[in-house]
Amino acid sequence: MSDDGLGSAPVRRGGGAATVLDRRRGVSGELVLQERDGVLEIVADGTFLMDTRDGRSERLLVRAALAASAAPVERVLVGGLGVGFSLLEALGHPTVTSVVVVELEPTVVDWHAGPLRAVTAGALDDPRVAVVVADLADHLAAARAGGYDVVCIDTDNGPDWLVRPANRTIWSPHGLALARRALAPAGVLAVWSAASSASFEARLRAAGFGTVDRHEVPVDRGEPDVVWVAS
Asked: For the chain, which terminal residue's Cβ has fewer other Cβ atoms within 10 angstroms, N or C?
């Protein structure tokens, strides 16, 4: 999900008319699940968040983090359930034994028992998966130090495309310190964004990670998606 200013996120949609499948009041305002040209979309207060069209960058978020780890990865934290692409990527890795998914919106979790179940094939029922309905920053603050081998953050549209102002904490030096504390000594942090951000990349480098790599994934409209991997 997003971080700072309703209506500011980039819009990436197909050209057909959308059919609303469900509309509810969520933690961040109105949440809508809609279908457009066979693609499911999640919209918050009129701001497009994500869809089931592609998922390349969401999968890369996890795949690149796992590849960057110097040790076998068993324990993964996915910050943001979304439509489930990141969760599926984590479950497909042979060494992963535990995936904790932190999702702020109960409605999004509910949709995975309904229309989105076809996308994730019931992945939330996998015994390796634990879904925590909570704010990611709160979860990181309460997490055991060194409890995760990999932390993947995809809870907003990125540090400069914010839907929920309270998410700013995640992108701050304090939020990055919380993520680093939750990582094992050889752990890896991966962060997804709908656009590049030089200021956030500088904060990431200043957070004490030895290596920070940026990956870009072209999209049909607008700037490329960006994945930072810090180890």
From this structure: C
4: left (phi over 0), alpha (psi -120 to 50) or beta: beta
**108-142 confidence digits (pLDDT tens):** 999 999 999 999 999 999 999 999 999 999 999 99
- What does each C-alpha distance from 163 to 43, 45, 140 come to in angstroms? 10, 8, 20
If we measure between CA atoms, which residue out of 39, 97, 43 comes closest to residue 66? Answer: 97
Sheet of 148-153: strands edge to edge? 129-133, 98-103, 75-79, 148-153, 183-193, 225-230, 212-217
pLDDT at 33 over 80: yes
pTM assigned to the model: 0.90
Length of the chain: 231
Task: Measure the CA–CA gap between 129 and 77, rounded to whole angstroms.
Answer: 10
